[in-house]
Design brief:
This protein is α+β, with helices and mostly antiparallel strands. The chain is built from 10 helices and 18 strands. The structure holds nickel (II) ion.
Amino acid sequence: MKTLYATAALMLAAAPALLAQNTALNARIAKLSTQEEAKVIAWRRDLHEHPELGNLETRTAGIIAAHLKSLGLEVQTGVARTGVVGILRGGKPGPVVALRADMDALPITESNSLPFASKVKSTYLGQPVGVMHACGHDTHVAMLMGAAEVLSQVKKDLPGTVKFIFQPAEEGSLPGEEGGAKLMVKEKVLENPKVDAIFGVHIQAQTEVGNLSYRPGGEMASSDRFTIKVHGKGSHGAYPWNSVDPVVTAAQIILGLQTIVSRQVKLTDDAAVVTVGTIHAGVRYNVIPPDVELSGTIRALNPEVQKQIWASVRRIATNIAESAGATAEVTIEPYVPVTFNDLALTSRMLPTLQSVAGPGHVIEQKAVTGAEDFSYYQEKVPGLFLFVGGMAKGTDPATTADHHTAGFLIDESGLTLGVKTLATLAADYLTGKK
Ligand code: NI
């Protein structure tokens, strides 16, 4: 009994002290983040003017590595081709938290007339293209460089280690090429020292500056590609009874696939998508071809639903083909898993988000059926991925250019909140602030 009282008294005494220490640390982080603003914007503009396609981010990586070295971090380069990892060891022992940014641009010709608009040209899959940071990964690099500078200035008060992960090729690698988060994980970016939790942010061109948004659980969808080869028997188009018509069979399969989401998935739990994007068959109007090939994408917000859809695609395609006397060969290529925000970590860090953005500026958003390869880290360790507002205040989101388009535009006044969010999430995680 006595011991219990003593422990309780000690806890009561320790709690306000820890809280005061955290509050002071958070206030310093907030101030330092604000002081970073001009640098972060300058980095972002330079990166925006010099975008690099996935797995080719050598200039970007050089800038990051030089910056992290100048802060006294341990730096690894050439991770997953062009990735850079910086390790900041705090002044006290504790857990390891990772912060991640992606570095790649897209094969899009910029249409904005900004003074730092991209004029870079390259080739992509043999075609001449412009190159543009049309998803805002330039802002991610700049914000994480800023967070590294902020946290390095408070490192003696950090109980634990922060790992800064700058990842190539989030938008995907060329066919047959490995890259992105999957390769970073394969090259053990979450080991040595072993990462306990990971955070990442994405700028959002349709969310007002000053706001953060997130979703607990399935936030962004998994993305899988499927191919269905329907093998029938060709004939003269005038004598269809001599054929096993793969065109009609493929049409039935396409309609059958549309019943997966509408009739088989429990839509009140999680949304899902099955889209057929290509269909190729035949060369001449009066010839029934022997084969048809379809391909499409499967999106799910829950790994169990994803597996259910895979099974349904196989069952529907093979059985409809069989009913016609044809065969269907189904290939499903998993591409990116569900970006799944760990429920315990998300609720633990919610007060941090509310404290950095302020009341009313943390939005629980709807799920997104687009994908994000941050999910590969979340498959290994608890992670939280959230969105930072990058739309000028008072703008109607319907009038803004979408991500992955030539007019994509970010209001830079949103970047400081991103820096502050990343740095405070890391500090609060390490100090165990609830
Ligand atoms: Ni992106």
